[in-house]
């Protein structure tokens, strides 16, 4: 066979034209028999050998990305920004991860160098050839519910707006806005909580509170302006559910927007080809971006500069959509933004799949691969607009040592030195808020404002909905001075009404098959002392 191929290697290729190759080989064998080089017996045995060559597997790197790029360009040759070595590692990782995924589930990964916005890795599915996992569907540019992945953006924008600072007192309490009554992933509530902790723990009610103050329409417009459109049903307007995944988004757009946390607040546009220009738009200030990135890296404490790592560690945020349909994890390390998605492309639920359990392990694997290939990582120094401060709860601002209105002191980062007062809910003005006016007589007893010689004082109290989580010494009944019996006040001892959570108005409760009764996991809060 080797004697034949050089004569016409293309025409006699055994993998493409086995019949031609066999005829040419047999012709040479016959000539060898005629010339006495081989015996007839040897030639007969050789002619019985089949002509077979395993078809060569064509290289298939980044197939879904390649399909997308072919659809974008009419050029015969397309040069992209993908790193072939990294892409191969990511595809091997996806194949190794396949066995961990539930049936009919897939995954997607994107890696972006945030220093120049080049896309370095793109894995659209776990296995292109696995139809049971919808391997032909590119989930990097599919529209899916992002769960909580949008929360860092609303906190960063609220910092710039002067609504909050990282230690702002937020309220993780049961709330209802019209027909919308959000809850937390763990189904519980945590009462008073700082913005930093609310973001790290991905609590829903504080994020809804901040979005309500910032404005959902304004929030959606801000993200759309930097290249992160949120997809809503036809005719629907942005509302408070946005921040909990009540809209669609693409993994590629999300990764591009997250570059703002590493690019001094400016979100870049993905560069798919080397000649693509570097474009970016401002999303938030460099100080707000730096603070949010540090919080996501679990570095919310305002350490001295000497104790701050110059190279920022991995900052990350997870997201889980309603019904466990999508699990997200977005990470920002010193050089790259990493986007991870897992779930079922057909949108069916996967019970028990959520961002921390399903996507974060994969995120960490990709991060380790990237760090093993990286050297001379860029540093992330603290911007001059970020300073350190100490504030007090419940008011949210600094107070002198010994001031009785400072019930708890917290060290925090501050943006431009700003100390916004505690952000209240819409119905928490006046005596329902924090600054509580009282009138005292000469004995320090609380009296009515029109009582003789009454003097006014302002006392900081905690917002009423937080009382169930406060120690008895911090509740209004104890914090307010006792009332005078001679000229009593008009009674502003506001109490939180009794609230039951765990069941919705109009809900239909049915017993499980074979059960004698239905059990409701109710919780109560408020209702007096």
Describe the structure.
InterPro entries: Beta-lactam/transpept-like, Glycosyltr_51/Transpeptidase, PBP_1c, PBP_transglycosylase, PCN-bd_Tpept. This is Penicillin-binding protein 1C. With 529 residues, the chain is of the alpha+beta class. Helices cover 24% and strands 17% of the residues. It has helices at 18-34, 40-47, 63-72, 84-97, 151-161, 195-200, 204-214, 216-225, 251-258, 286-296, 355-373, 476-479, and strands at 106-113, 118-123, 143-144, 169-172, 191-194, 249-250, 266-268, 280-282, 315-320, 326-332, 336-343, 386-393, 408-415, 435-440, 446-447, 455-460, 499-501, 523-525. The strands form seven sheets. The protein has a five-stranded antiparallel sheet with strand order 2-1-11-10-9, with helices on both faces. The radius of gyration is 32 Å and the shape is elongated. The protein starts with 17 loop residues before the first helix and ends with a strand. The model has no long low-confidence stretch (mean pLDDT 90).
Mean pLDDT metric: 90
Distance between the termini: 96 Å
**Overall body shape:** elongated
Please give the share of residues in helix: 10-25%
Q: Give the ordered list of helices and strands.
A: HHHHEEEHEEHHHEHEEHEEEHEEEEEHEE
Tally of individual helices: 12
